[in-house]
Design a protein that fits this description.
71 residues; mainly alpha; two-stranded parallel sheet; 4 helices; 2 strands; 51% helix
Length: 71
């Protein structure tokens, strides 16, 4: 979702509030993102709070994968 070229635009946020998102969320058990800047981690923390999500940020792809496959 986030990378060095991304920005939180109104269009970006609209995509997360779409009806399709609500249909998919019950099937998501874990989510992870890799390589966020400190600013984007803060934005993610706010997003998790507002939308009652638990997306985790990791420094490495390996750590994210371990989290995703753990029970």
């Amino acid at each position: 979702i986030f990378n060095n070229k991304s920005f939180l635009t109104p269009g970006f946020m609209k995509a997360f509030k779409s009806e399709k998102r609500d249909e998919v969320v019950p099937f998501i058990s874990k989510q992870a993102v890799v390589g966020l800047s400190e600013t984007k981690k803060m934005i993610l923390k706010g997003y998790n709070f507002i939308f009652n999500r638990e997306i985790k940020a990791f420094a490495s792809k390996e750590a994210a994968i371990i989290f995703l496959i753990s029970e």
